[in-house]
Design brief:
Blueprint lengths: L8 H10 L10 H11 L4 E3 H7 L12 E3 L15 E3 L8 E6 L2 E6 L17
Parallel strand pairs: 1-5, 2-3
Antiparallel strand pairs: 1-2, 4-5
C-alpha cells in the first residue's frame, strides 16, 4: 500500500471516537480485510471486512476486521495489527472461495435481507 492511499488522520480519528475500544484505523478496510484474509486462508472474512472487499466504501471504515474460525478457542478483539476472531459467524453454504491476486481467500457471501410485509399483522382491533 502506498502512503497516499492511507486514510487522512483526522477522518480516522473521528471514526476512532465512535469505535467501542477507540481503535484508530488509518489503513482502509478493504486493504486490512484482504491482508488478514490472505494471511489466514483457513479463516473466513466476515462483516464489514467482507463488505469492503465487495466494494462498499461507506460505513465500513473505522470498523474491526472480523475473521471466523470454527476451531478458535474463544472470540478475541482485534486491533490495528490483528483481526478480531470469532468462532461462529456464517454457515458453510454462505462462504465463497475467491482468489485475490492469485491468493486464495474465503469471504462470507452477501446476504439479502427479506423485507417485512407492511400492513396489519392480525393484531387487536
Amino acid at each position: 500500500m502506498l502512503a497516499r492511499e492511507a486514510r487522512p488522520y483526522e477522518l480516522a480519528r473521528a471514526d476512532a471516537r465512535r469505535h467501542p475500544r477507540g481503535v484508530l484505523y488509518e489503513i482502509p478496510a478493504a486493504y486490512r480485510a484482504a491482508a488478514h484474509g490472505i494471511e489466514n486462508p483457513d479463516m473466513v472474512v466476515l462483516a464489514h471486512g467482507a463488505l469492503a472487499l465487495y466494494g462498499l466504501r461507506y460505513q465500513v471504515e473505522g470498523k474491526d476486521t472480523v475473521l471466523m474460525h470454527s476451531a478458535a478457542g474463544r472470540n478475541s478483539h482485534g486491533n490495528i495489527r490483528k483481526p478480531s476472531i470469532v468462532r461462529r459467524g456464517c454457515k458453510n453454504e454462505h462462504i465463497w472461495q475467491v482468489r485475490h491476486c492469485g491468493y486464495p481467500l474465503q469471504v462470507a457471501r452477501r446476504q439479502r435481507r427479506r423485507r417485512k410485509r407492511c400492513g396489519r399483522s392480525g393484531g387487536r382491533r
